[in-house]
Structure formats: C-alpha cells, structure tokens
Write a structure and sequence with these properties.
Blueprint: E1 3-5, E2 12-14, E3 16-19, H1 32-45, E4 49-51, H2 60-69, E5 77-82, H3 97-111, E6 116-121, H4 131-143, E7 146-152, H5 156-163, E8 170-174, H6 186-193, E9 196-200, H7 237-240, H8 245-261, H9 266-276, E10 280-286, H10 290-297, H11 306-318
Parallel strand pairs: 3-4, 3-10, 4-5, 5-6, 6-7, 7-8, 8-9, 9-10
Antiparallel strand pairs: 1-2
C-alpha cells in the first residue's frame, strides 16, 4: 500500500481512502453485508483511511462502519464530520460550541470508539463566528476525543480565519478530472502550510466509472436523478446538468483508450490522475463490495506519463467539458 503523510498530523494515510457516504443512503440501495466485506477487504490490502460523517444518514454510515471494523478499529484512521443537515438551523448548518460537543459524543457512540483521528466541519456555518467551533475542536483534542482538526468546503479566506484560532490540520475538497477548481487557491495554500488534503468525488460521482450512458436512469433515492440539483450546492451541475451531461459522457469515452494503454480500468486511471497531484494525501472513493475495493487498489504502483496527462486535458477541451467552472462550491 502506498502511504502518504497526512499533513503534519504524524499519521501515515493510505493513498486510496474508503468513502462511506453511500452506506448512509442517498445513492440508492446498498447491501450492508457487502459493505462489511468491502471494509475488511480494504483493511487486508492496507487501506487504512475511512471517511464518514454525521450527515450520512445521521448515524447510519457511522454505525455501519463501526460494525464493519469491529475489533480492527486500531488498524483504521477514521475521519468524520459534523455541522450540516440540521432542519432547525439556518441553511441547515450549525457549528456552535453546543453542536460540536453534542455531535462528537453522538459520533463516538455510533462509531463505537473513544476517539476519531480527524474531526472536520462539513460545510461552513457563516452565522456562527469561526472562532467558536475552532476553540471547541481544540478542546476536543485536549480531551483526547479527537486527534486532529479539519475543514471541508471552506473558502480560502475562511480557512485563514479559522487558522487564527487553531491550526487546521486537514482539509477535504472535491477533486477529480471534471472538477479542478481547488488547484487555483486552496491547494497552493495547503502545500505552503503542510495541511493534509483529502480528495472526495475522485470518480466524479460515477461519471468516471465509464458505466453511465445517455439512457442511464438513477433510482429515485439517488441524488443524481435530480440532474445535479442539490439545494445550493454547485458541485454537480456541470457534471449531471442537462447542458453538460452528454458532452461529459463523450469525454469519458475518449478516456477509455488511454486507460487501456496502461492495462487499467477507467476508474483506475481516474484515481491515479487524482493522486498525481502531490498535495493530495488520500483520494476517497466509495465501495459497495470487495470487487470495487480491488479495482480501486489497481490505481496504485504506477504513474501516468506527462504526454498522457496532456492528452487527458486535450480530451476535455475537445468536448467542451468545463473543469474550472466560474463558481464556488455553493451559492451564497
């Protein structure tokens, strides 16, 4: 297994991480028994990063992960998140000290553990001053409930404001061939400040699996059936929106021969591309079963040539795929 430094936390993290959003619901149906087998297969292969969140089924994902890890908790680096999905809060977000304290205890109980390796604010709560959650998170570190502190989906100016109160150890952002916005400001800042970076959406929510087509119909419970509309979040419109979907599918078809050149699957090429950026500590990808875990592990131990990296860029340009949309991750 390829291990990378997790910023300055002292943790060595597997280059491929296991994303647990799917088991919490929102991606259609997934068998828990298969998920449990997948987690154990990942551990057997040396994958030690497991990422979940309170908002993934409000405890459902964390409980399933705890069940899957069982006595192997010590072999896992668990990252979980809080701060979003509360119907009674403005914009569904709440990062008050009260919420921090309540949420960590709920997560620890759901995860059946007495600490998490990294605790992140899932989305910024712009009503509560950032000093408040950062101070509360620092207290959790001192109490031993949390080893490191992180932010997900914060703007650069917001990371800087948070860092005035307490060091930001880890961040989590969308990063894949179809979404390269973070290379502009966020990644250079992380490189400069030794912040660990978790890339989510590494397979562009299924677009880079090569299994989607014009006829693809998502289950009713799958957020992708909304053609990229997910509240005020702008992660997805340029992927699944009606103006982009077909162009993106054509680009994906042209990527397949490049993967074949290396004797790799398209998801393996996409994951390797994500990991080519040296700022990335781990690339998160959801796994429904052990076969998918094995496929993801095939992204390790090889590299994409500079010529092929340029060819990948040319594919996206040729099909008018928008990889740097002029918008942040959400509407204000």
């Amino acid at each position: 297994m390829e291990l990378r430094p997790f910023g300055r936390t002292g943790i060595q993290i597997s280059a491929v991480g296991f994303g647990c959003w799917e088991i919490g619901g929102g991606y259609g149906s997934i068998e828990e028994s298969e998920f449990i087998k997948a987690v154990n297969r990942a551990l057997d292969l040396g994958i030690n990063c497991f990422d979940t969140a309170e908002a993934y089924g409000f405890g459902a994902s964390e409980k399933s992960l705890a069940k899957a890890l069982g006595s192997r908790r010590k072999d896992a680096v668990i990252t979980t998140k809080f701060g979003v999905g509360y119907p009674d809060a403005p914009n569904y977000r709440d990062s008050t000290r009260k919420r921090v304290v309540e949420s960590i205890d709920k997560s620890l109980k759901a995860l059946d553990t007495d600490y998490v390796d990294v605790y992140l604010i899932h989305w910024p709560d712009r009503v509560t001053p950032f000093e408040e959650p950062m101070q509360a998170l620092d207290e959790l570190v001192k109490q031993g409930k949390v080893k490191a502190v992180g932010l997900s989906n914060f703007k650069l100016s917001e990371i800087e404001r948070c860092a005035r109160t307490r060091r930001v150890d880890v961040v989590q952002y969308c990063w894949n061939m179809f979404d390269r916005r973070m290379q502009k400001e966020i990644f250079p800042y992380c490189r400069e400040n030794g912040i660990g970076v978790m890339a989510y959406g590494s397979l562009a929510y299924g677009m880079l699996t090569g299994t989607l087509s014009e006829e693809s119909a998502f289950e009713k419970g799958d957020w992708r059936s909304r053609q990229g509309k997910l509240g005020n979040i702008n992660l997805f419109q340029h992927l699944f929106g009606p103006d982009h979907f077909l162009n993106n599918l054509r680009a994906v078809e042209d990527l397949k021969p490049i993967a074949k050149r290396y004797g790799k699957s398209l998801p393996q090429l996409a994951l390797r591309w994500t990991l080519t950026n040296p700022v990335i500590s781990t690339a998160l990808v959801g796994c429904r079963n052990p076969r998918e875990v094995d496929d993801n592990a095939g992204a390790l131990g090889w590299s994409i040539s500079d010529a092929d990296m340029k060819e990948i860029d040319a594919v996206f340009a040729r099909h008018g795929a928008i990889t740097m949309p002029e918008m942040w991750l959400e509407t204000e």
